[in-house]
Design brief:
There is one protein chain. The chain is an alpha/beta fold and about 130 residues long. The protein has a single domain (about 5-120), classed as Rossmann fold (3-Layer(aba) Sandwich). It has helices at about 15-35, 55-65, 85-95, 105, 110-120, and strands at about 5, 40, 70-75, 100-105. The chain has a four-stranded parallel beta sheet with strand order 2-1-3-4, with helices on both faces. Helix 3 links the parallel strand 3 (about 70-75) and strand 4 (about 100-105).
């Protein structure tokens, strides 16, 4: 069975919301592929080790490790608010992992509310 890596925004969201997004992404990817896929569980419950300078980068490293096992990638448009998702998508494309892309508003029902909560935070930027 092919393995699916679903890249979904996590910052500012609950585990339940994230897992619901994983399930939606899996259904969409299976419709595209025409077969059942094994979802790689990218929820990382462990905490970064002491000494990690940037927790988000530590989590991204773990995520990319899991992406290396994927046959198929599906990600969402995050408009730059979730740089980890942008990096995951770039890696999938650069390394020719079969990939699909959907709009975040189709996966996250409370997208506007999430953006309002995050607007108070500094927006991360990518220097690509």
């Amino acid at each position: 069975m092919k393995k699916l890596f679903a890249s979904v925004p996590m910052r500012g969201r609950t585990e339940e919301e994230i897992r619901e997004s994983f399930a939606k992404m899996k259904r969409i990817a299976e419709a595209y592929e025409g077969e059942e896929l094994e979802l790689i569980d990218t929820w990382i419950a462990e905490e970064p080790p002491e000494g990690a300078k940037t927790n988000a980068v530590w989590y991204l490293g773990k995520s990319l490790e899991m992406l290396s096992t994927a046959d198929v990638y599906i990600g969402v448009s995050t408009y730059g608010y979730f740089p980890g998702c942008c990096v995951e998508e770039e890696v999938a494309q650069l390394y020719k992992i079969k990939h699909y892309h959907v709009d975040a508003t189709d996966i996250i029902p409370n997208w506007n509310e999430l953006m309002q909560r995050l607007s108070a935070l500094e927006r991360p930027t990518l220097g690509l």
